[in-house]
Design brief:
By secondary structure, this protein is α+β, with helices and mostly antiparallel strands. The chain has three domains: 218 residues, Aminohydrolase, N-terminal nucleophile (Ntn) domain (Glutamine Phosphoribosylpyrophosphate, subunit 1, domain 1); 298 residues, Rossmann fold; 82 residues, no CATH class. It is 39% helix and 15% strand. It is built from 28 helices and 17 strands. It has a six-stranded antiparallel sheet with strand order 2-3-1-9-8-10. A six-stranded antiparallel sheet has the order 4-5-6-7-11-12, covered by helices on one side. Strand 13, helix 7 and strand 14 form a beta-alpha-beta unit. Helix 17 runs parallel beside helix 18.
Length: 618
Amino acid sequence: MCGIVGLAGDWPAGVLSRLNGAIVHRGPDDSGEYEDREARVALAMRRLSILDLEGGHQPMSTEDEQVWIVYNGEIFNAPDLRRELENRGHRFRTSHSDTECLLRLYQDRGPAMLDALDGMFAFVVYDRRQGILFGARDPFGIKPLYYSRPSGRLAFASEIKALLALPGFRRELDLQSLSHYLSLRYVPGPGSIFRDVARLPAGHAFRYDLKGGAFTLERYWRPRFPPAAAGSAHEDRDRVRAELREAVRRWMLSDVPVGCSLSGGLDSSAIVGLLGEMGHSRIKTYSLGFRGPGEEQWSELHLARQVAEKWGTDHHELVLTPDELLDELVPMVWSLEEPYGGGLPSWYVFRMMSRDVKVGLTGTGGDELFGGYGKWRAYERGLPGYRRPWREWLTAERPARFAHPAESYFLYLNDEEKRDHVLTGAANGLTGTTAWVRALMDEAESAAARDGFTAVDLQGQLPEEFLLMTDRFSMAHSLEARVPFLDRRFVEAMLSIPSSRRTAPHDLKGLLRGAVADLLPAALVRAPKRGFVLPDAMWLRGTLRPLVERLLAPERLRRQGLFRPEVYARFVEPHLSGKENRAGQVWTLLLFQVWHVIFVESAASEKPSITWRDLAAS
């Protein structure tokens, strides 16, 4: 696991080291730099050593130094690929480095190598023979890669923080990204919150011609939903069990200790159960609990304990009050880099895990594969005869509010509210967020609304919210977070099961639950989905009220020029007074403002030492 940076074109001396220094948290174990002055190419990395601790130094090259690579991630089928390459005549210098496996695979297949990879990765290859840079990101966007192209040059990095160190970088906002954030609470790609930074989308590769400066993108993976195949419920359950077991086995590849985040929910508990079944004894597990009013309504801590007891894990717990989650709000915002209004608890789980292990498995991805939180249920249940394919409803007579399934996708601020009451006129002409959702859904090669929403989640919320948060929060503590549910072979196998069998309105995860029920305590098998819900309504009216009143004050909004001053009277005052519950809108706006103070107004270049209380008092 690493952080990578690189430059192409004429850049001042010292820039590469400055970029690499900005991501030292991603790899405190090792670092390296390479420069080809004649070709004006420079590569660097920071390494968190997980595999081949002695032999995996980067940047890595072939013997003739004609091909170089910097790479962030893990290739979990690298042992199989290595054997294939050795059979084809390739000779390896390292004992089992997956970095060298990528390098030899590129030598052997070129860009076609991407079809063979199963893992989480972002890498860039410098091919001196062809005079190109070739880079790619894994199919689900588990590992990040950003780039900027000022004056035709190229700079890339694992995190935006590195690109902020580029000479003359302008911290100007991308208003389209801001608009999407207000609806989604995260910034979707391929842009970023900064106008001059883009992200390589999940499942994409790029090619950069060092002579001509041409930069091209190509998509190599997308969610596909094959035609329905025959099968029974029993066969489906057996297939889920077998495929998930193999995915977990593959994703345990490591030369350092591995732990598991154990929330007490179905997904993370299934991973621990499968590890126990495979004979992994005394694996370390970590759970976060809360104390305070209403805690018993959503806590799964007691369920996590039962899983730990069943499989004899080395179990660790951290119990916080909800208000304690806010103690490190500013470091969280700094680590996330872009505005984000979602969950905070994972920060503390990863911090706890990092004290004992370098690798942590999580259950991220299970919800998207098995039900997508039921977002499609509102559409299906809202129409008579909803079992018809959703594309037929686009031309059939139907209620106007269901003109397209994307209309039922949950938004914190809808396009009309943003246009008429929130954003200033500077944001006129932007693409609506509903249109963005609709475009993703329309690309899905399936007639089922459920598949359409799965496609949206796999390309939207999963990579741009949950995986971004997982990567930044874990790497802030120099921990590699792994997500076995997003094993490529497992995902493709699950998407080949018809959605009508993969999930159901009355039991979203019934298939997965049935596949792993014997591995879990009976109480967990029967338990409804829970999970910690941020007490944002309470925070905004109480603990955070001084911060809200300062950062969302009408005069401040007027000076800032992004939002209409009437936002305060329309959303903030009714919530603070208790007349209405506008927590969703106010929390979204407040988290943006905290981000804006840190990254734009203060132009921070390193982690701030202030707290949110300092922001409220200043």
